[in-house]
Amino acid sequence: MEEIKVNDKAVERLKKKIIIQENLNLKTRTKSDQEMISWIKKQIEEEVKCYSNE
């Protein structure tokens, strides 16, 4: 079984972005729950893409 490596800096960066966006969206209600889920998935995918290119 292959070991999964986790980039702690990337995880922290993602957590901050998601929390900020969630707080903003709670105030403005510009995105639905489904749109927020899509946005979060996209952010994770982008971070994984960047990490895998290192």
Plain-language structure description:
By secondary structure, the protein is mainly alpha-helical. The protein has 2 helices and no strands. It has helices at residues 8-28, 33-52. α1 (8-28) runs antiparallel to α2. The chain starts with 7 loop residues before the first helix and ends with a helix.
Question: How are the secondary structure elements laid out?
Answer:
Blueprint: H1 8-28, H2 33-52
Helix pairs in contact: 1-2
Give the structure's gist in a few sentences.
With 54 residues, the chain is mainly α.
List descriptors.
single chain; 54 residues; mainly alpha; 2 helices; 76% helix
Number of E-state strands: 0
For this structure, the quaternary state is single chain
Which sheet architecture does the biggest sheet show? none
The level of helicity is over 70%
Query: Kindly state the mean pLDDT as a whole number?
Result: 92
Class per helix and strand makeup: mainly alpha
Radius of gyration: 13 Å
Shape: elongated
Order of helices and strands: HH
**DSSP strand content:** under 5%
